[in-house]
Write a structure and sequence with these properties.
disordered C terminus, elongated, Arc Repressor Mutant, subunit A, mainly alpha, single chain, 0% strand
């Protein structure tokens, strides 16, 4: 749906005004490049809400407050993600101590490792934890999701890996046939 010109004009000006302020607010907690991404994500979230342009100063003040609340939500989500990632790394490092399991390279063929590298971050994270020997319940705890969500993530990752590996086999056969 196309928004009305006054709506777009107001939000273009509002975003130009708020982007540096939101960036500064977030930069207190994250590096500048990540703060920039989170600030842009904040304004995108606000845009998607399709809130009518404020009619007076009170509504404008409320819109600014909402913008900061959305930014805070993105900051908290990013902080939780960092903690989950740190926990995942810590648990994986503790799990794979020298002398326990063979190394990743020794148990994962090159074609599979390359396919895993092509997965999205969430899929790759879940698959690497599975390869490290964690069960679905443990993966769910590490990633901070429910066991069902971890199971679904692993199932989707397996499907994507199958497609990638099968596509590589077809490419290999085509190359040898020519």
């Amino acid at each position: 749906m196309r928004r009305a010109a006054p709506y777009e004009a107001f939000y273009a000006d509002f975003f130009a005004e708020m982007l540096p302020k939101i960036h500064k607010f977030i930069r207190a907690r994250f590096p500048s490049s990540q703060a920039e991404d989170l600030a842009n994500e904040t304004l995108l979230t606000l845009w998607r809400k399709e809130i009518p342009a404020p009619r007076d100063d009170t509504e404008l003040r409320q819109l600014r407050q909402l913008t900061y609340k959305i930014a805070l939500g993105h900051v908290l989500n990013a902080q939780r993600k960092e903690v989950r990632e740190r926990d995942a790394v810590d648990r994986a490092v503790l799990r794979i101590l020298p002398g326990s399991d063979p190394t990743f390279e020794a148990i994962v063929p090159d074609t599979l490792a390359q396919a895993i590298d092509q997965l999205g971050f969430n899929d790759r994270q879940a698959v690497n934890l599975l390869i490290a020997g964690f069960g679905t319940g443990e993966i769910a705890d590490i990633l901070g999701v429910t066991p069902k969500a971890a199971s679904m993530r692993l199932a989707r990752a397996r499907e994507r890996l199958d497609r990638k590996i099968n596509a590589e086999e077809v490419d290999v056969n085509v190359d040898t046939a020519s």
